[in-house]
Amino acid sequence: MIFTAEPMPVQRLYDIGVVNKTVERENLLAEAESVAEKICLSGPLAVEAMKKLLEFGYNTDYKKLMNISGNIIVPVVNSDDTTEALASFVEKRLPS
Description:
It is a single chain. By secondary structure, this protein is mostly helical. It has helices spanning 10-15, 28-41, 44-57, 62-77, 80-90. It has 2 domains: 1-41, no CATH class; 43-96, Lyase 2-enoyl-coa Hydratase, Chain  A, domain 2. It contains 5 helices and no strands. The longest helix is centred in the last third of the chain and has 16 residues, at 62-77.
């Protein structure tokens, strides 16, 4: 698809994991909002870290990405957000 610019059927894209869900056009906005709500419920530091990894990882070789990953992920793992996330999971409640 990248080299030929020919479209692929959505079922094929789903089968190979490029697409994780399909929705009818009239349900698209509601589904996008649902996904956005899930992202907003996630820890902000974790979301920010994933955005940074995507940004840096796009044009970075594996070794550099692994070095960058440690610098981005370790502060998140050692944060109050992670402590609260683990506590809320164990206590079967939403994070506060």
